[in-house]
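Running co-folding for zinc ion.
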Amino acid sequence: MLIKNVILPNKKRANVYIEGNVISSINEEAKKDDWVIDGKGKLLMPAFYNTHTHLSMTVFRGLGEDMWLKDWLEKIIWPMEKNINGEYVYWGAIIGALELIHSGIAAIADMYFYMEEVARVLELLGLRGVLGTTIFDFPSPEAETPEEMLKIAEKFAKKYRDHELIKPSVAPHAPYTCSPETLMKAKELAEKYNILLQIHLAETRWEVYEIQKRYGKRPVKLLEDIGFLGENVLAAHSVWLTKAEIKTLARYKVKVAHNPVSNLKLASGGVMPFPEMLEYGVLVTLGTDGVASNNNFDMFEEMKIMAIAQKNHRWNPTIAKAEEVFKVATENGAKALGFKAGRVEEGYLADLMLIDLDKPHLKPFYDPITLAVYSMRASDVDGLIVNGNPIMLNRKVLVSDEQKLLEKAEKKAFELYEKSIKDQS
Ligand SMILES: [Zn+2]
């Protein structure tokens, strides 16, 4: 496949060849090829790696806004999750995955329930996923006990360990919802299959106080003491950390998934300590979290809000520079999930997006990366290639009938809502 006469992130014009799933060469000369994509007027960038989300929670989008967490859970989420099953997870993931495509996202790290359904959706639409069954110490929509949840996670790990697009993972929910025993059982499972461990960590001040109350130490210290930390850990949020804790995360090579929009929207109060993470060498990646707390998968918006929240929080406009933030959203994410991707370079996986530059808000075209972080939006994404396969070109999804899928998915979401609200009354 040839992407002809396209603009690269370094602003040079080139012809980009893809062989199989890899960028095979980038040069100035155009040769004949069986599949040619016209790149004229378009910018070719690495696709995003969204490292923390709950894809199927699109069915909750827009419900229970502007509420305290407790009310939101009790009035909306729990009654609806009581009725969540594999079918709703599938259709929720359909809405989510179509949005990922339109937002230039090649891969997600996801944790929820009925993950085989999420895997089916990503396979259908040709996207990558590192998928983990959520594990905690109380009943989930899928299982009653953590033991059962671990069994489901193991079955998933066996089924998907050699898959081209899907990587299995284990996802103990958080230190305050899992006992140390459950956390360590999840860790053993991840080690047995050599897969990633996803966890929510130090998201709120409440969590830090709660863990201190229960165990007499802060969350990172707890995880260190029980032997949970390691380089296969991907810790979402990681907001409320001391410098010593950041050094601990760096020492164990823990990866962080930063979720600025979700943190701001849920009023977590703190801002993830990005300058210290950089200083001590923690690999920081970017995630949207689920749309119930975002409310979209727009990684451009996520990058901009990350940058401006950092600057504002530290009273310093020189931190969280555009090129650093762009790397966090692309190359760092790919690295954390174990893929050689996130750069438009020979030998890298062909996970790429095309941007239509013919828009007033993208003129004048000085610096592509600055434009990407501060001016672009998901709706500027014109094409997406994942694993060497064109998934969307000229804003048309090629891999399935988008309109039909969306109609059915929306009906299913309304059905779940009506059923759950009826249950309540
Ligand atoms: Zn989350």
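Result summary
The pocket of zinc ion is lined by residues 52, 54, 200, 236, 289 (CB under 6 Å).
The longest strand covers residues 105-112.
Job closed.
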